Amino acid sequence: MASTSLAAQDSRLHRVLRHLGHELRHVLPPTLFFLVGFNLIVFTQNLMLSEYLARSINFLVATTAALVVGKSVLVADKMPFLRRFDNAPLILPILFKTVVYWAFVFIARLIEAFIHHIVDSGRIGGFGTAMVEQFSWHRFLFIQIWILVLFLIYTTGAELNGLFGDGELARILFRHRSSDLKQTRRQRIRALVRLSRLTEAQPTSALRDPATPAHRELVGLIEQLAQDAGRRRGRVRG
Fold first, then answer.
1. pTM above 0.70?
2. pLDDT digits over 154-184, tens only?
3. Alpha helices in 77-177 (DSSP H)
4. Measured in whole angstroms, how far is the alpha carbon of residue 101 from the centre of its chain?
5. Measuring CA to CA, how many Å separate 42 from each of 31, 82, 209?
6. Is the dihedral of CA 6, 10, 16, 17 positive or negative?
7. Using an 8 Å Cβ cutoff, are 101 and 76 in contact?
8. Cβ(74)–Cβ(82) under 8 Å?
9. I want to staple 168 with a disulfide (CB 3.0 to 4.6 A). Which of 67, 156, 164, 177 is the partner?
10. Closest C-alpha among 151, 38, 147, 145 to residue 94
């Protein structure tokens, strides 16, 4: 009984650790992206304001904002409606997810401001008055505008990465030579177009019969696609 109980605890611990690892991998890319983006904005703005001996948002605030954005993306991705336009032209899911992410961050930042109000004042009431009279709306809106721009860039990259296959966009940008990549893509597209036309023009019986030209053409196209895939895997390992 004791060994069974220990095995069950180990299994639960393993599931918890696996879940945490999955969540960390999910939240890490947007957090790092916005960490770099926000701190770059702060750095350039401070350079512009240095002539007037003034400083804007500090780097600690920018880093905290990046963490808020990362958590907001994690929460937003749990919502089923976020996949509403996944089958539409690519511009629609990019714009829709950008707006949804931006709205979640907007709400999260308001909640964060409310928590700061409670800590500073020691009471829940009066938050609306403090927002109107004391809250720095110029800084808040400045950050929200840049969050919208950064989310548009981030979502575009994420959607392209999902379209090409997970990790393929990074290989295209940093590992493959552009000339080889263009040639390979062009060959694959032509082969896929020929394959589509062949299956539309020929009946299934002709495609299955080894004695027909349609079957031989079908096999040749499949072999060509398999060779292209093998060359890509070879370049990745190399």
1. no
2. 889 888 887 776 666 777 677 656 555 555 6
3. 91-121, 127-133, 137-164, 168-174
4. 11
5. 16, 30, 67
6. positive
7. yes
8. no
9. 164
10. 151
